[in-house]
């Protein structure tokens, strides 16, 4: 089990968007590359503001990037 119930499709979407780098996404969102790494590994759940920034940078909706994984 990962560290957060908030799952994401960041890595897949980055590659679908012309293989955007982690650094490119970080720069577009005003965060560090380490933040993007932690998000992709699902060790960190973003703030609502950052989630919106990521979705906008990837040119998609919030629910296309993030979803809630039920915890048993």
What does this 3D model show about the protein?
By secondary structure, this protein is mainly alpha-helical. It has one domain: 434 Repressor (Amino-terminal Domain) (Orthogonal Bundle), CATH 1.10.260. It contains 5 helices and 2 strands; from the N terminus they run E-H-H-H-H-H-E. It has a two-stranded antiparallel sheet. The longest helix is centred in the last third of the chain and has 10 residues. The termini are close together.
Write the layout of secondary structure elements.
Blueprint: E1 6-8, H1 10-16, H2 22-29, H3 33-40, H4 48-57, H5 62-65, E2 66-68
Helix pairs in contact: 2-3
Radius of gyration: 11 Å
Give the helix/strand class: mainly alpha
Give the number of helices. Answer: 5
CATH architectural label? Orthogonal Bundle
The top-level CATH class is Mainly Alpha
**Physical arrangement of strands within the biggest beta sheet:** 1-2
Write a short abstract of this structure.
With about 70 residues, the protein is mainly alpha-helical.
């Amino acid at each position: 089990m990962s560290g957060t119930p908030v799952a994401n499709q960041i890595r897949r979407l980055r590659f679908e968007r012309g293989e955007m780098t982690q650094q490119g996404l970080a720069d577009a969102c005003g965060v560090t590359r380490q933040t993007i790494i932690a998000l992709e590994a699902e060790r960190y759940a973003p703030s609502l503001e950052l989630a919106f920034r990521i979705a906008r940078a990837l040119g998609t909706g919030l629910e296309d990037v993030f979803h809630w994984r039920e915890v048993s």
